[in-house]
Protein backbone atom coordinates (compact mmCIF):
# COMPACT_ATOMS: atom_id res chain seq x y z
CA UNK A 1 0.00 0.00 0.00
CA UNK A 2 1.27 3.54 -0.75
CA UNK A 3 2.63 5.43 2.25
CA UNK A 4 0.17 8.25 1.54
CA UNK A 5 -2.60 5.95 2.77
CA UNK A 6 -0.98 5.86 6.20
CA UNK A 7 -0.93 9.66 6.29
CA UNK A 8 -4.69 9.51 5.70
CA UNK A 9 -5.00 6.90 8.45
CA UNK A 10 -3.14 9.14 10.94
CA UNK A 11 -5.49 12.02 10.14
CA UNK A 12 -8.49 9.72 10.55
CA UNK A 13 -7.05 8.54 13.88
CA UNK A 14 -6.85 12.14 15.08
CA UNK A 15 -10.37 12.98 13.87
CA UNK A 16 -11.82 9.85 15.49
CA UNK A 17 -10.08 10.58 18.78
CA UNK A 18 -11.34 14.16 18.66
CA UNK A 19 -14.94 13.06 18.09
CA UNK A 20 -15.25 10.40 20.76
CA UNK A 21 -12.88 11.56 23.54
CA UNK A 22 -15.37 14.24 24.67
CA UNK A 23 -17.89 11.53 25.60
CA UNK A 24 -15.58 9.93 28.14
CA UNK A 25 -14.61 13.30 29.62
CA UNK A 26 -18.04 14.94 29.69
CA UNK A 27 -18.29 15.27 33.52
CA UNK A 28 -14.82 16.85 33.74
CA UNK A 29 -15.52 19.20 30.83
CA UNK A 30 -18.88 20.22 32.32
CA UNK A 31 -17.23 21.02 35.65
CA UNK A 32 -14.36 22.84 33.95
CA UNK A 33 -16.60 25.29 32.06
CA UNK A 34 -19.25 25.55 34.78
CA UNK A 35 -22.27 23.91 33.15
CA UNK A 36 -24.40 20.84 33.86
CA UNK A 37 -23.67 17.50 32.21
CA UNK A 38 -26.84 17.67 30.04
CA UNK A 39 -25.78 21.14 28.89
CA UNK A 40 -22.29 19.86 28.13
CA UNK A 41 -23.97 17.21 25.96
CA UNK A 42 -24.63 20.06 23.55
CA UNK A 43 -20.93 19.91 22.69
CA UNK A 44 -21.54 16.51 21.08
CA UNK A 45 -24.51 17.89 19.16
CA UNK A 46 -22.36 20.83 18.07
CA UNK A 47 -19.72 18.48 16.67
CA UNK A 48 -22.35 16.56 14.70
CA UNK A 49 -23.72 19.84 13.34
CA UNK A 50 -20.22 20.78 12.22
CA UNK A 51 -19.95 17.51 10.27
CA UNK A 52 -23.41 17.73 8.70
CA UNK A 53 -23.00 21.32 7.55
CA UNK A 54 -19.24 21.40 7.05
CA UNK A 55 -18.89 18.25 4.95
CA UNK A 56 -20.61 19.56 1.80
CA UNK A 57 -19.56 23.20 2.30
CA UNK A 58 -15.84 22.53 2.76
CA UNK A 59 -15.82 19.97 -0.04
CA UNK A 60 -17.64 22.33 -2.41
CA UNK A 61 -15.36 25.24 -1.48
CA UNK A 62 -12.29 23.13 -2.22
CA UNK A 63 -13.62 21.55 -5.44
CA UNK A 64 -10.97 23.28 -7.59
CA UNK A 65 -8.12 22.80 -5.14
CA UNK A 66 -5.62 19.95 -5.31
CA UNK A 67 -6.66 17.09 -3.04
CA UNK A 68 -3.43 17.44 -1.05
CA UNK A 69 -4.26 21.07 -0.22
CA UNK A 70 -7.73 20.11 1.02
CA UNK A 71 -6.26 17.39 3.23
CA UNK A 72 -3.79 19.90 4.68
CA UNK A 73 -6.70 22.21 5.52
CA UNK A 74 -8.47 19.29 7.20
CA UNK A 75 -5.45 18.48 9.36
CA UNK A 76 -4.98 22.18 10.14
CA UNK A 77 -8.58 22.53 11.30
CA UNK A 78 -8.16 19.46 13.51
CA UNK A 79 -5.12 21.03 15.17
CA UNK A 80 -6.60 24.54 15.44
CA UNK A 81 -9.95 23.41 16.88
CA UNK A 82 -8.16 21.25 19.45
CA UNK A 83 -5.97 24.16 20.55
CA UNK A 84 -9.08 26.35 20.84
CA UNK A 85 -10.76 23.64 22.92
CA UNK A 86 -7.74 23.35 25.19
CA UNK A 87 -7.64 27.10 25.94
CA UNK A 88 -11.43 27.73 25.96
CA UNK A 89 -12.36 29.99 28.87
CA UNK A 90 -16.05 29.15 28.85
CA UNK A 91 -18.80 27.02 27.37
CA UNK A 92 -19.49 29.33 24.42
CA UNK A 93 -15.91 29.27 23.15
CA UNK A 94 -15.73 25.50 23.66
CA UNK A 95 -18.96 25.00 21.71
CA UNK A 96 -17.56 27.00 18.80
CA UNK A 97 -14.40 24.91 18.95
CA UNK A 98 -16.40 21.68 18.82
CA UNK A 99 -18.43 22.85 15.84
CA UNK A 100 -15.18 23.74 14.04
CA UNK A 101 -13.76 20.34 15.03
CA UNK A 102 -16.63 18.63 13.23
CA UNK A 103 -16.16 20.55 9.97
CA UNK A 104 -13.12 18.63 8.66
CA UNK A 105 -14.47 15.13 9.32
CA UNK A 106 -16.78 14.98 6.32
CA UNK A 107 -14.18 16.51 4.02
CA UNK A 108 -11.57 14.04 5.25
CA UNK A 109 -13.63 10.99 4.45
CA UNK A 110 -15.14 12.57 1.35
CA UNK A 111 -11.93 13.78 -0.27
CA UNK A 112 -9.84 11.13 1.49
CA UNK A 113 -11.95 8.33 -0.02
CA UNK A 114 -11.35 9.77 -3.48
CA UNK A 115 -7.60 10.09 -2.84
CA UNK A 116 -7.39 6.53 -1.49
CA UNK A 117 -9.15 5.26 -4.61
CA UNK A 118 -6.73 7.20 -6.86
CA UNK A 119 -3.62 5.86 -5.17
CA UNK A 120 -4.23 2.19 -6.04
CA UNK A 121 -5.56 0.10 -8.95
CA UNK A 122 -9.38 -0.23 -9.14
CA UNK A 123 -9.41 -3.75 -7.70
CA UNK A 124 -7.65 -2.52 -4.54
CA UNK A 125 -9.84 0.51 -3.82
CA UNK A 126 -11.79 -1.16 -1.01
CA UNK A 127 -8.58 -2.23 0.70
CA UNK A 128 -7.15 1.27 0.37
CA UNK A 129 -10.23 2.82 1.94
CA UNK A 130 -10.16 0.26 4.75
CA UNK A 131 -6.63 1.46 5.59
CA UNK A 132 -7.89 5.03 5.88
CA UNK A 133 -11.00 4.04 7.86
CA UNK A 134 -8.74 1.79 9.94
CA UNK A 135 -7.24 4.92 11.46
CA UNK A 136 -10.72 5.94 12.60
CA UNK A 137 -11.47 2.53 14.10
CA UNK A 138 -8.09 2.39 15.83
CA UNK A 139 -8.95 5.69 17.47
CA UNK A 140 -11.67 3.81 19.35
CA UNK A 141 -9.34 0.94 20.22
CA UNK A 142 -6.41 3.01 21.47
CA UNK A 143 -6.74 6.76 21.00
CA UNK A 144 -10.00 7.38 22.87
CA UNK A 145 -9.20 5.18 25.91
CA UNK A 146 -5.70 6.67 26.25
CA UNK A 147 -6.81 10.27 25.83
CA UNK A 148 -9.74 9.69 28.22
CA UNK A 149 -7.35 8.29 30.81
CA UNK A 150 -4.99 11.23 30.33
CA UNK A 151 -7.87 13.68 30.69
CA UNK A 152 -8.95 12.06 33.93
CA UNK A 153 -5.40 12.11 35.32
CA UNK A 154 -4.03 15.41 34.02
CA UNK A 155 -7.22 17.34 33.25
CA UNK A 156 -9.45 17.46 30.19
CA UNK A 157 -7.46 20.29 28.58
CA UNK A 158 -4.41 18.01 28.40
CA UNK A 159 -6.45 15.60 26.26
CA UNK A 160 -7.11 18.33 23.70
CA UNK A 161 -3.45 19.31 23.60
CA UNK A 162 -2.62 15.72 22.64
CA UNK A 163 -5.26 15.79 19.90
CA UNK A 164 -3.78 19.08 18.66
CA UNK A 165 -0.42 17.33 18.42
CA UNK A 166 -2.05 14.58 16.36
CA UNK A 167 -3.36 17.30 14.04
CA UNK A 168 0.13 18.72 13.63
CA UNK A 169 1.50 15.22 12.93
CA UNK A 170 -1.24 14.74 10.33
CA UNK A 171 -0.25 17.96 8.59
CA UNK A 172 3.38 16.87 8.47
CA UNK A 173 2.51 13.40 7.15
CA UNK A 174 0.17 14.78 4.50
CA UNK A 175 2.72 17.33 3.32
CA UNK A 176 5.45 14.71 3.09
CA UNK A 177 3.58 11.70 1.69
CA UNK A 178 0.47 12.71 -0.27
CA UNK A 179 1.36 13.43 -3.94
CA UNK A 180 0.77 16.90 -5.34
CA UNK A 181 -1.79 17.57 -8.05
CA UNK A 182 -4.14 14.67 -7.37
CA UNK A 183 -7.26 15.41 -9.42
CA UNK A 184 -9.29 13.25 -11.81
CA UNK A 185 -8.49 14.20 -15.40
CA UNK A 186 -12.18 14.59 -16.28
CA UNK A 187 -13.12 16.64 -13.22
CA UNK A 188 -14.85 19.94 -14.04
CA UNK A 189 -14.97 21.42 -10.55
CA UNK A 190 -18.02 22.32 -8.47
CA UNK A 191 -20.49 22.18 -11.38
CA UNK A 192 -19.49 18.61 -12.13
CA UNK A 193 -19.72 17.71 -8.42
CA UNK A 194 -23.23 19.17 -8.17
CA UNK A 195 -24.32 17.35 -11.32
CA UNK A 196 -23.75 13.98 -9.65
CA UNK A 197 -26.48 14.84 -7.13
CA UNK A 198 -29.06 14.54 -9.92
CA UNK A 199 -28.49 10.80 -9.96
CA UNK A 200 -31.20 8.97 -7.94
CA UNK A 201 -28.83 6.12 -7.11
CA UNK A 202 -26.51 8.54 -5.26
CA UNK A 203 -29.36 9.60 -2.96
CA UNK A 204 -30.52 6.01 -2.56
CA UNK A 205 -27.01 5.02 -1.50
CA UNK A 206 -27.01 7.79 1.12
CA UNK A 207 -30.44 6.66 2.33
CA UNK A 208 -28.94 3.20 2.91
CA UNK A 209 -26.22 4.87 5.00
CA UNK A 210 -28.72 6.84 7.09
CA UNK A 211 -31.02 3.90 7.81
CA UNK A 212 -28.43 1.13 8.11
CA UNK A 213 -25.92 3.00 10.23
CA UNK A 214 -28.72 4.58 12.25
CA UNK A 215 -29.19 1.10 13.66
CA UNK A 216 -25.67 1.14 15.10
CA UNK A 217 -26.16 4.47 16.85
CA UNK A 218 -29.62 3.61 18.16
CA UNK A 219 -27.93 0.94 20.26
CA UNK A 220 -24.46 2.35 20.89
CA UNK A 221 -25.66 5.75 22.13
CA UNK A 222 -27.16 4.01 25.18
CA UNK A 223 -24.51 1.35 25.63
CA UNK A 224 -23.36 2.66 29.04
CA UNK A 225 -26.70 2.40 30.86
CA UNK A 226 -27.50 -0.84 29.03
CA UNK A 227 -24.25 -2.54 30.04
CA UNK A 228 -24.37 -1.31 33.64
CA UNK A 229 -28.08 -1.36 34.51
CA UNK A 230 -29.07 -4.39 32.40
CA UNK A 231 -25.97 -6.56 31.85
CA UNK A 232 -24.64 -5.92 35.36
CA UNK A 233 -21.19 -4.48 34.60
CA UNK A 234 -19.68 -1.94 36.95
CA UNK A 235 -19.17 1.61 35.73
CA UNK A 236 -15.40 1.06 35.84
CA UNK A 237 -15.76 -1.66 33.18
CA UNK A 238 -16.92 0.75 30.50
CA UNK A 239 -13.39 1.57 29.30
CA UNK A 240 -12.69 -2.12 28.70
CA UNK A 241 -16.06 -2.58 27.01
CA UNK A 242 -15.35 0.34 24.68
CA UNK A 243 -12.08 -1.38 23.76
CA UNK A 244 -14.08 -4.56 22.97
CA UNK A 245 -16.35 -2.52 20.71
CA UNK A 246 -13.32 -0.87 19.10
CA UNK A 247 -11.72 -4.25 18.42
CA UNK A 248 -14.95 -5.30 16.73
CA UNK A 249 -14.79 -2.15 14.61
CA UNK A 250 -11.20 -2.90 13.59
CA UNK A 251 -12.07 -6.49 12.69
CA UNK A 252 -15.07 -5.40 10.66
CA UNK A 253 -12.96 -2.88 8.81
CA UNK A 254 -10.43 -5.58 7.88
CA UNK A 255 -13.17 -7.97 6.73
CA UNK A 256 -14.76 -5.24 4.64
CA UNK A 257 -11.47 -4.32 3.01
CA UNK A 258 -10.97 -7.94 1.97
CA UNK A 259 -14.36 -8.65 0.43
CA UNK A 260 -15.98 -5.36 -0.64
CA UNK A 261 -13.56 -4.78 -3.51
CA UNK A 262 -14.48 -8.15 -5.04
CA UNK A 263 -18.26 -8.19 -4.57
CA UNK A 264 -19.56 -4.87 -3.30
CA UNK A 265 -23.32 -5.34 -3.17
CA UNK A 266 -23.35 -8.97 -1.94
CA UNK A 267 -20.94 -7.91 0.84
CA UNK A 268 -23.18 -4.97 1.76
CA UNK A 269 -26.21 -7.27 1.92
CA UNK A 270 -24.37 -9.67 4.23
CA UNK A 271 -23.12 -6.90 6.53
CA UNK A 272 -26.53 -5.25 6.86
CA UNK A 273 -28.25 -8.59 7.39
CA UNK A 274 -25.67 -9.51 10.03
CA UNK A 275 -26.19 -6.15 11.73
CA UNK A 276 -29.95 -6.74 11.81
CA UNK A 277 -29.47 -10.16 13.42
CA UNK A 278 -26.92 -8.90 15.98
CA UNK A 279 -29.14 -6.01 17.09
CA UNK A 280 -32.11 -8.37 17.40
CA UNK A 281 -30.04 -10.74 19.55
CA UNK A 282 -28.81 -7.84 21.68
CA UNK A 283 -32.32 -7.40 23.07
CA UNK A 284 -31.87 -10.79 24.74
CA UNK A 285 -28.10 -11.08 25.29
CA UNK A 286 -27.91 -7.68 27.04
CA UNK A 287 -29.22 -9.35 30.20
CA UNK A 288 -26.01 -11.31 30.86
CA UNK A 289 -22.45 -10.01 30.98
CA UNK A 290 -20.51 -12.44 28.78
CA UNK A 291 -23.14 -12.67 25.99
CA UNK A 292 -23.56 -8.88 26.16
CA UNK A 293 -19.83 -8.29 25.72
CA UNK A 294 -19.67 -10.75 22.81
CA UNK A 295 -22.64 -9.11 21.13
CA UNK A 296 -21.05 -5.68 21.61
CA UNK A 297 -18.00 -6.97 19.73
CA UNK A 298 -20.23 -8.23 16.90
CA UNK A 299 -22.07 -4.91 16.81
CA UNK A 300 -18.75 -3.17 16.17
CA UNK A 301 -17.78 -5.79 13.59
CA UNK A 302 -20.92 -5.75 11.44
CA UNK A 303 -21.64 -2.08 12.05
CA UNK A 304 -18.27 -0.84 10.84
CA UNK A 305 -17.86 -3.45 8.12
CA UNK A 306 -20.61 -1.49 6.37
CA UNK A 307 -18.62 1.78 6.37
CA UNK A 308 -16.16 1.13 3.48
CA UNK A 309 -18.95 -0.66 1.59
CA UNK A 310 -21.35 2.29 1.94
CA UNK A 311 -18.64 4.75 0.95
CA UNK A 312 -17.64 2.61 -2.04
CA UNK A 313 -21.26 2.48 -3.19
CA UNK A 314 -21.48 6.27 -3.21
CA UNK A 315 -18.15 6.56 -5.05
CA UNK A 316 -19.38 4.14 -7.72
CA UNK A 317 -22.70 5.91 -8.21
CA UNK A 318 -21.04 9.37 -8.29
CA UNK A 319 -18.30 8.34 -10.73
CA UNK A 320 -16.62 11.27 -12.48
CA UNK A 321 -17.07 13.80 -9.67
CA UNK A 322 -17.39 11.84 -6.43
CA UNK A 323 -15.93 14.16 -3.77
CA UNK A 324 -19.09 16.12 -2.88
CA UNK A 325 -21.34 13.04 -2.87
CA UNK A 326 -18.77 11.19 -0.76
CA UNK A 327 -18.67 14.07 1.73
CA UNK A 328 -22.46 14.22 1.82
CA UNK A 329 -22.41 10.54 2.70
CA UNK A 330 -20.42 11.45 5.82
CA UNK A 331 -23.20 13.91 6.65
CA UNK A 332 -25.56 10.96 6.20
CA UNK A 333 -23.54 9.01 8.78
CA UNK A 334 -24.00 11.84 11.27
CA UNK A 335 -27.70 12.17 10.46
CA UNK A 336 -27.80 8.45 11.23
CA UNK A 337 -26.15 9.27 14.55
CA UNK A 338 -28.83 11.82 15.43
CA UNK A 339 -31.70 9.70 14.09
CA UNK A 340 -30.60 6.54 15.87
CA UNK A 341 -30.02 8.37 19.17
CA UNK A 342 -33.43 10.08 18.95
CA UNK A 343 -35.39 6.92 18.11
CA UNK A 344 -33.50 4.86 20.69
CA UNK A 345 -34.24 7.47 23.34
CA UNK A 346 -37.89 7.48 22.29
CA UNK A 347 -38.04 3.72 22.89
CA UNK A 348 -36.60 4.17 26.40
CA UNK A 349 -39.07 6.96 27.22
CA UNK A 350 -41.90 4.78 25.93
CA UNK A 351 -41.12 2.22 28.63
CA UNK A 352 -39.20 -0.40 26.66
CA UNK A 353 -36.12 -0.08 28.87
CA UNK A 354 -32.48 0.16 27.92
CA UNK A 355 -32.74 -2.80 25.53
CA UNK A 356 -35.44 -1.04 23.52
CA UNK A 357 -32.87 0.86 21.41
CA UNK A 358 -31.52 -2.49 20.18
CA UNK A 359 -34.93 -3.39 18.74
CA UNK A 360 -35.15 0.05 17.13
CA UNK A 361 -31.67 -0.47 15.70
CA UNK A 362 -32.67 -3.83 14.23
CA UNK A 363 -35.60 -2.19 12.43
CA UNK A 364 -33.35 0.57 11.07
CA UNK A 365 -30.71 -1.93 9.89
CA UNK A 366 -33.40 -4.01 8.18
CA UNK A 367 -34.67 -0.86 6.49
CA UNK A 368 -31.15 -0.16 5.25
CA UNK A 369 -30.95 -3.72 3.89
CA UNK A 370 -34.26 -3.28 2.05
CA UNK A 371 -33.08 0.01 0.52
CA UNK A 372 -29.80 -1.61 -0.54
CA UNK A 373 -31.76 -4.42 -2.20
CA UNK A 374 -33.85 -1.84 -4.07
CA UNK A 375 -30.69 -0.08 -5.22
CA UNK A 376 -29.21 -3.37 -6.42
CA UNK A 377 -32.43 -4.16 -8.28
CA UNK A 378 -32.26 -0.80 -10.07
CA UNK A 379 -28.72 -1.69 -11.18
CA UNK A 380 -29.87 -5.06 -12.54
CA UNK A 381 -32.74 -3.55 -14.48
CA UNK A 382 -30.46 -0.85 -15.91
CA UNK A 383 -27.98 -3.54 -16.95
CA UNK A 384 -30.71 -5.61 -18.57
CA UNK A 385 -31.97 -2.55 -20.48
CA UNK A 386 -28.48 -1.85 -21.82
CA UNK A 387 -28.08 -5.48 -22.86
CA UNK A 388 -31.29 -5.29 -24.88
Task: Explain what this protein looks like in three dimensions.
There is one protein chain. The protein is mostly helical and 388 residues long. 84% of the residues lie in helices and 0% in strands. The protein contains 16 helices and no strands. It has helices at 3-24, 26-33, 37-40, 42-61, 67-87, 91-119, 125-154, 156-177, 190-195, 200-220, 223-230, 238-259, 264-285, 289-317, 323-352, 356-387. Helix 10 (200-220) runs antiparallel to helix 14. The longest helix is centred in the C-terminal third of the chain and has 32 residues, at 356-387. It starts with a helix and ends with a helix. Mean pLDDT is 84; it is low at 184-188.
Note the quaternary state here. single chain
Secondary-structure element series: HHHHHHHHHHHHHHHH
Largest sheet: none
Helix amount, in percent?
Answer: over 70%
Shape: globular
- End-to-end Cα distance: 40 Å
Count up the helices.
16
> Which stretches of 5+ consecutive residues score pLDDT under 50?
184-188
Q: From the helix content, strand content and strand pairing, which structural class follows?
A: mainly alpha
Q: Average pLDDT, to the nearest integer?
A: 84
What is the radius of gyration? 20 Å
The percent range for strand residues is: under 5%
Number of strands: 0
Question: What's a concise summary of this model?
Answer:
The protein is an all-alpha fold and 388 residues long.
Amino acid sequence: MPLALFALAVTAFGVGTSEFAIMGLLPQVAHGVGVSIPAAGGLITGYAAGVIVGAPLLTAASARLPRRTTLLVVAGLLAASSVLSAVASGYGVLLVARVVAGVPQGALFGVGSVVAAQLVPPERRAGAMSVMFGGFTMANVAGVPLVTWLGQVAGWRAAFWVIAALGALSMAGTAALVPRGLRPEDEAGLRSELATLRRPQVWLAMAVTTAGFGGVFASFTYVAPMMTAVAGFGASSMTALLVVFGLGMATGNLVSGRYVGRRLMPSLYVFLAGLTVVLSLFVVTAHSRVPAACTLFLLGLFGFATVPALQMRVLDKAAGAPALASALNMSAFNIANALGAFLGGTAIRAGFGYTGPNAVGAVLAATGLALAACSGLVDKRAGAAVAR
